[in-house]
Amino acid sequence: MIISAMPGPFGAIVEGIDLSVPQSDDILRGLIAALHEHQILAIRGQRLTDADYVAFGHQWGRPLMFHLQSHRKDEFPEMIRITNAAATPERYRDGAKFWHQDSSYEAVPASVTMLYGAETPDEGGETLIASTALAYDALDDAMKAKIDGLVGLHCLGGSPALPGEKIPFIPENTARHGIVSHPLVMRHPVTGRKALYLSGSAFGAEGLEIDEGRALINALRTHCTQPQFVTRYKVETGDIFLWDNFQVLHSATPIEYSDEPGKRRLLFRISTKGVPALCDTADLAA
Predict the structure, then answer these.
(1) How confident is residue 69, by pLDDT bands cut at 50, 70 and 90?
(2) Three-class SS of 42-91
(3) What is the DSSP letter of 136?
(4) Whole-number Å distance between alpha carbons of 31 and 17
(5) To 5 degrees, how large is the angle CA 261–CA 267–CA 268?
(6) Which CATH architecture has domain 2-90+108-120+234-247+256-273?
(7) How far apart, in whole angstroms, are the C-alpha atoms of residue 160 and residue 185?
(8) pLDDT score of 169 more than 80
(9) Looking at beta carbons, which pairs linking 254-261 to residues 24 or more positions away fall under 8 Å?
(10) CB neighbours of residue 99 within 10 Å
């Protein structure tokens, strides 16, 4: 297994491993440690069955069931289908074109998300990634003192939109999930590293007036998505692309919806909750 740095401020590429065959605990621990160190990980050259992919997903935690049942794969509901089929309803097109961390509108958010490239277009389909860990590190001491200890308020589609964002807001879905709270500064459950936790769902903070809280969230989301904290990756066929939701935001980029050869995209997403069974958790009280 060879791990090398991606171009840009963070991220790593993994080659020389075949995940269609069982891997030792040491290899899996190496992959987990690499993700926690590099924040995003692209494992190239894979040819997996659905069962292989789901088994790999379970190594990272407890796979979640996406709230839109129509997006799940029938035989393997852990897998979420992402496609640019021409028949895709307008309300679902470019629905992830905003900065977010997965399932942040739930009381227990997603920890790791991965995409497996089954078919990818010749052009387009990149994912943007912003490091909330690097963004936190870059804050001045006064801002860190202000936000450390604050509890953010989240609801599905709740964040103030940044320029160019398309944050989906479906009232019945938002009402079903309600309002949840998460620390505005999240400590990583394995490494203990601090990072901002904002997603596309944070709309305020406990103890702050509505306008003050919303302005703070907008300022921090703007800060996180500055170019020095952002990289991008295009999932190619055979890639497994993982990100650590406790350290990064991500956003889709616009894609053409087409059934033509060379333009089609089919990815399968798995998101997990909790920490890998092979990991020890950090002492967050230290």
Answers:
(1) low
(2) EECCCCCCHHHHHHHHHCCCEECCCCCHHHECCCCCCCEEEECCCCCCHH
(3) H
(4) 10
(5) 150
(6) 4-Layer Sandwich (3.60)
(7) 18
(8) no
(9) 254/94, 254/97, 254/124, 255/84, 255/94, 255/121, 255/124, 255/125, 256/84, 256/121, 256/124, 257/84, 257/85, 257/86, 257/88, 257/93, 258/84, 258/86, 259/85, 259/86
(10) 26
**Dihedral sign from CA coordinates of 271, 274, 280, 282:** positive
For 26: left if phi > 0, alpha if psi spans -120 to 50, otherwise beta; the answer is alpha
Q: Which amino acid is at 230?
A: V
How far is residue 39 CA from its own chain's centroid? 10
Q: Which of 150, 157, 147, 127 is nearest to 251 (CA)?
A: 127
Q: What share of the chain is helix, strand, coil (3-state, %, to 5)?
A: 25, 25, 50
Structural Rg of the chain based on CA atoms: 18
| Cα separation, 205 vs 261, whole angstroms | 47
Among candidates 182, 195, 273, which has minimal Cα distance to 39?
Answer: 195
The dihedral through the CA atoms of 153, 159, 160, 162 has a sign that is positive
pLDDT for 84-114, tens place per residue?
Answer: 999 998 888 888 899 999 999 999 999 999 9
> Token pair of 178, please?
């309600």
The size of the chain, in residues, is: 286
How do the domains of the chain map onto residue ranges?
2-90+108-120+234-247+256-273
Count of CA atoms in the C-beta half-sphere (13 A) of 227 = 0
- Residue keyed to tokens 């020890």: 280
What mean pLDDT comes out for the span 173-177?
77
**DSSP assignment of 161-224, as one string?**
PPTT------HHHHHHH--EEEESEEEPTTT--EEE--TTTEEEETTS-HHHHHHHHHHHHHHH
